Amino acid sequence: MSGGLLITHIAGLVQVRPVAPGIVAGADMAHLPVINHAWILVKDGRIHSFGSMDTCPDSTGHECIDASGRWVMPTFVDSHTHLVFPTPRSEEFVMKIRGATYAEIAANGGGILNSARKLQGMSEDDLLEVTLPRIKALIASGTGAFEIKSGYGLTVADELKMLRVARRLARHVPVTIRTTLLGAHAIPTGMSKDHYVRLVIEEMIPAAAAEGLADYVDVFCEEGFFSPADTEAIIMAGRRHGLGARIHANQLHHSGGVQVGVKTGAISVDHLEQMGDEEIACLREGNTMPVVLPGAAFFLNLPFPPARRMIESGLPVAIASDYNPGSSPAGTIPMMISLACIRMRLTPEEAINATTINTAHTLGLTQTHGTITVGKEANLLITRKVASLAELPYAYDTPWADTVLLRGVTHN
Questions:
Q1: Is 374 found in the same domain as 323?
Q2: Range of the domain at 192
Q3: Which of 35, 93, 117, 146 has its CA at 20 to 30 Å from residue 51's CA atom?
Q4: pLDDT in tens, 118-138
Q5: Could you give phi then psi for residue 246, rounded to 5 degrees?
Q6: Cβ contacts of 121 within 8 Å, gap of 6 or more
Q7: Predicted confidence (pLDDT) per residue in 97-116, tens digit
């Protein structure tokens, strides 16, 4: 038998699921299976076996890591990012400090339109060059799979350019990447909304599908941007071309995004800062995953999504970063977990389930990511030394990762 990588004396092997569930919801989100004083064996980039140290195999022939005092868990799955963008928008940060709202900045040519102007002047290679350091830094923080959206191009050519860059990233870093066409992110200057919606439906979606550049289509369903009717039309156009659906919903207003997401069978509705009993009841009637983005609520000083209420109503909840230059310029999932615990009153166990199993589900990665399960990719986060799992989100400014393994190979 050929050797592998044997990690021993693990303080706690986290998220152990002999058979991985599709999702966890409601009260089950508080259950996070852990084997204390454990080992795990990796072979050929996959999880081969694991157990408590009293069953540990002979280390002869294996590369070994002594993880004494450390915890081992599956790497995070970030199901909502805008990683491909030209430059930060720190000038808008000062505008926010002085009281300008997200909508006011957008109405004055800032926000998404600001990024679009900059991106349209960049080559694909230049865009790849500025994006690579971002994704490498996030991998080092413990994320092993990403969703990446377009949305800063706002022309057919530039939206496709963004998607090509997102696809190319997977050739440079050993992570799984799913891509989303978010052409309906804002309305370009000088074009009517109806004209632009037709462009997205009749040209952008077919072009992205023809090149195999997108797995999903997304819409910013929000007052002043795209209506529920626009959203439904775009989602159905995407479906005709084999694309799944995700929706930016209820960030600034009760926009109807949740209802159209459930009606159309969208995989997820993301943001949800503006939620009431009606939206929660609607989600309970469907299979659409609510995804909360605490980094955006924090940065924009918006109400945090009512994740606690959603869980108590029996719903699943997923947590993602929304890494983008305008409203969430941070992408480390450990920080999102800390915010979820501190501001949304989730327990560490609930927050870890929300960033592993449930986000993996929304990207169709249940069979390969999100749990410690035999046969899954060996994407593992070995934490720094801590006395308890709760110490990781508690010390919110301290990095979690001591070592990150991607497909069984040390990344950092």
A1: no
A2: 77-362
A3: 146
A4: 999 999 999 999 999 999 999
A5: -135, 155
A6: none
A7: 888 887 788 877 788 999 99
